[in-house]
Amino acid sequence: MKTTIGKLIYTTICCYIISLSAMHAQAVDNENRYTVTLSDGTAVVLLGKAISLSDDTSNEFYYLPFSLRLAENKAKDPEFLFLKYMTNEKEVNGGIGGALLHMLMMWGPTAAQRTELETILEKGEQHVPKGSKLKGALEVMPDGEKSLKIISATLGDEKLTRSIVQSFNAPVLEGGRCAVASSLTPQGAQLLAATFEKNMAITDLSVELGYKYTTRIPAAKGKVTINWSKIKSHMDSIHAKYEVDIKRKKRLHFNGFWLSTKTDTKVTRNYDESRSVIDSLIKDKLIEIDFDENVVDDRVTKVREAFFDFFLQKMTQSDEAQELPPPTEKEAEAMPNIKYGREYTFNKKYIESKYESGVETFNLNYRLAVEKPFTITANLASWYNSVKDNNKCVASVLLDDPFFQHRDINFILDNEAKDLLEKGEANYATVSIKKERNSGNDFIDAVTIDYEYLKEKGLKAAITYARGEDKNSDVYKYKIQWSLKGGNVYPANPEWVEGDWQGITLAPPVVSRDIEFEADLEELKALKVARATLQLRYFKFGNEVEKNIPITVSKGEPLVEKTIFTDRDTQGYMYRYILTHKEKGKMVVPPTKWEEKVNDDYVYATIPQELKDEDPDYLDMAVKAGEALLKPGKNGKVTKAAQILDKFKDVLKVVKTD
Predict the structure, then answer these.
(1) 3-class DSSP string for 523-562
(2) Which residue ranges make up each domain of the chain?
(3) Which of 160-174, 338-352, 417-431 is predicted least confidently?
(4) Which of the residue ranges 103-107, 449-453, 483-487, 556-560 would you say has the lowest mean pLDDT?
(5) Beta-strand (E) ranges in 321-474?
(6) What is the rounded distance in angstroms from the CA atom of residue 383 to the CA atom of residue 512?
(7) Which residue pairs from 487-495 have beta carbons closer than 8 angstroms and sit at least 24 positions apart in sequence?
(8) Cβ distance 374 to 213 under 8 Å?
(9) Which ranges constitute the DSSP H helices of 402-489?
(10) Which of 339, 303, 334, 317 is nearest to 224 (CA)?
């Protein structure tokens, strides 16, 4: 099927723009933006749906996150708890006091807000086009590693707050929940309560959710002009000057490219040589590319490259090369790699067929998709008045009151435990409770916390204990067991630990480490190394495991970052490099030992001088070590015969007992 050059160039660029739009399923137009105010004073930002390949504006709108508020349970009670507690005994005599603060938050319009918003769009109020439709919430992404921020002088003061646990990531889905929980000292409880209950204009607790979203903005306008008449004259003059007779076959030398005057003679060149023809036409202004770039972005360059590659395809015929010489520098950097290993024949018939066209001009107007930040903030003052008279939300309790017949044993997962469940390193955690009574049966119960539990109920779990006639009500025990990826449990036989009525913070037996691995790509390229791999050995859930972090030279990324989970009682890990040489294969560096890292999560791929000097003995050891590499078992577990960490337990500060 024949296609005009204009349509093909247009299609090439459109495909690239579609790939940009694929980064965000809901493409919106930054130029079609409105802010409306609801009757309750809530401001709502609306963004119109982007119409592909058109400057027309849509009457379909998405809204950015708004209406941050307290979540509700199935009984429609706000999920908020401010529980002040104390005992008759003073703290110096064993008494306790303070407060527990816990709340779940969500965003998204209420039913009334959604109805009002749809009415504003339908009637065309507040300058919105009449007859507009509401599509729903715009898809957003968290802005940064800690997109949920708690702003509070009280909660930020260690003398006023015993502990604070929170979700770090703002919920990206409408109706998704995030949590904040804190245990306050008596002074912190009184101070925070004063800002709640004294009719202050603002309380000492604000919540900020940070997001970013993708929107389409005008980026550049351009055109391509191809002067076929000048190309014909240029070709004729070159023909007259450089025509030679080789084996009685006339050939034409065109800007470094030999053309046969007979259709049955085939002269081939590689990608660089063929591309130079296009470059020379642009340099001599036979092809003019003019872009009015008002946004500096590497994607503009990629669209320009799309035209170059298209025109090269039309001017030449490409086939698989019969021989595969080493790639040139440009071929090695070209993406995709199909440019390497191909041969190009100049398409004389195509050029001659275009001579009659004279001058062709193609307009290449296009837009860019960019990320924009957005925050939504709320102060607890806007929520507290609606819950202050609800004894399910705000209450005080005298813990040693004889009438108080039940106790809640509260468990709060710390952020590391939350990450462990969210990233799939653990399936769930089971907390078991044992309360020995003076008479009757002991109280035994358990609660299981998994990812679904976190999404629905947040970081806090509670088990209610009925005191009854128990005179020893201040002592209970608990133990925690983790179900790991792969179906194993850890520890196999957990020990009972005495608990505290003020609450228990559950920390997993492993902690996360964000390992950064960096290398000098030019140095690796000069040594003919295609890939550098950081090989790690560390303890995870009591087992020695292995993790490999690669840097591939052709990808052009000198630094990569991966998260690992190491046992909490270790301070580091062992490492070495595996260099994949283009000719020698895998080489282990250093070949005869492992290096240690303690309290440092950054590793730079230092190339030994022996390798740079091509020391034959060193190279031989490195290659032999590479040949002896063994793959780890399931989930990275190292076989007993291949384990090395016991030799370094003093360095890593690991205390192991049989």
Answers:
(1) HHHHCCEEEEEEEEEEEECCEEEEEEEEEEHHHCCCEEEE
(2) 15-217+371-379, 224-362, 405-508, 511-652
(3) 338-352
(4) 483-487
(5) 342-346, 359-363, 366-379, 394-398, 406-413, 426-435, 443-450, 460-466
(6) 35
(7) 488/541, 490/541, 490/542, 491/542
(8) yes
(9) 415-422, 451-457
(10) 303
Q: DSSP H helical segments within 107-203, as ranges?
A: 111-123, 186-197
Are 626 and 586 within 8 A, CB to CB? Answer: yes
Q: pLDDT for 270-328, tens place per residue?
A: 677 777 777 787 888 888 877 766 656 565 666 666 666 666 666 776 665 555 455 55
Distance CA 61, CA 29 (A): 10
Indicate the class that CATH gives domain 405-508.
Answer: mainly beta
Portion of the chain with pLDDT greater than 70, in percent: 74
Q: For residue 32, give every residue at least 6 positions away whose Cβ sits within 8 Å of its Cβ, in sequence order, or none.
A: 47, 48, 50, 57, 58
Strands (DSSP E) along 420-496, which ranges?
426-435, 443-450, 460-466, 477-484, 489-490
pLDDT tens sequence across 546-590:
999 999 999 999 999 998 888 888 888 999 999 999 999 999 998
Percent of the chain with pLDDT over 90: 21
Letter for the amino acid at 221? K
Of 608, 467, 458, which is closest to residue 527 (Cα–Cα)? 608
Instruction: Please give the Cα distance from 608 to 519 (Å, whole number).
Output: 13
Residue 403: burial class (beta carbons within 10 Å; 0-12, 13-18, 19+) = exposed
